[in-house]
Amino acid sequence: MRAALVANREDVDPGLVGRALRRHGYTFTEFLREDHEGWLPVEDFNLVLALGSNWSTYWDHVAGPVRAEQELLREAMRRNIPVLGICFGAQQVAAVLGGEITKAQSPEIGWCQVFATSEAGPTAPSALTSGPWMQWHYDRFSVPSGATVLADSPIGPQAMVVGRTLAVQFHPEATETIVSHWSSGTGAEELDATGISKVALLSETRSQVEGAEIRCNELVDWFISTIAQGHMGSPTV
Question: Most distant CA pair in the chain: distance in Å?
Fold first, then answer.
């Protein structure tokens, strides 16, 4: 089965989510945001995985690739192709469905707990809220009409489902290698600006990643069996 992997050129590693999807038989074709003019038709794929980004959806200088990704996600959802959106990818899903993307009251960086909502009921897997997830974002999304919010945090929505699409604000894919990459260059400057120690963040990542991988596997298994295969109605996009 073929999965379209939407990502920025410098951040294309699907990490733990990639490992879990490969165990389900998926292979990846990269859809680099910077090269959106050459993307293949989405109808040739069985799943779309939209990763995070250091962009904001409302930045004028990346409006072209942002719109291209939104059109790809809109077409995937129209065709009932399962979508898993992560962080920026989740915000893009929300924007396609009519949600609003705005600057959060404060950034959410590090290993943070998310909490089940009253809407989740028995629908959400226990793995979603049984431990902390890696976060690194400055924006939040509002919940579009028709979506079910499964988890949130003091910053905003953290997981929602609509049709065959799951959107999560946190980073279930995060490995020690990925977090180390994010913490270099401008990422190191961001950590300094928010008073977060890079050494402490990487140390916590090493202690958290084993449990996170177990929960990521459970989350992806649930997504494939319950959302990707279980919901056949497409959202209105």
Answer: 46
Tell how strand 156-162 and strand 148-153 pair up: antiparallel
Q: Which of 235, 208, 212 is nearest to 79 (CA)?
A: 235
Cα–Cα distance between 61 and 95 in angstroms, integer?
18
pLDDT digits (tens, 9 = 90+) for 116-162: 999 888 878 999 999 999 999 999 999 999 999 999 999 999 999 99
pLDDT in tens, 157-193: 999 999 999 999 999 999 999 999 999 999 999 999 9
State whether CATH 3.40.50.880 applies to domain 2-228: yes
Are the C-beta atoms of residues 133 and 114 closer than 8 Å to each other?
yes
Residue extents of the structural domains in the chain:
2-228
Going by C-alpha positions, the residue among 12, 87, 91, 3 that lies closest to residue 48 is 3
> Can you give the pLDDT at residue 232?
45
- Assessment of whether the complete model's pTM goes beyond 0.90: yes
Convert the pLDDT of each residue in 42-91 to its tens digit. Answer: 999 999 999 999 999 999 999 999 999 999 999 999 999 999 999 999 99
Crossing angle of helices 15-23 and 198-222, in 10° steps, is 20
- Rounded-to-integer distance, Cα 181 and Cα 26, Å: 25
Buried b (16+ CB within 10 A) or exposed e, 17-38: bbebbeeeebebeebbbeebee
- Name the CA dihedral angle for 145, 149, 153, 159, rounded to a multiple of 10 degrees: -110
CA-angle at 123, arms to 119 and 128, nearest 5° = 90
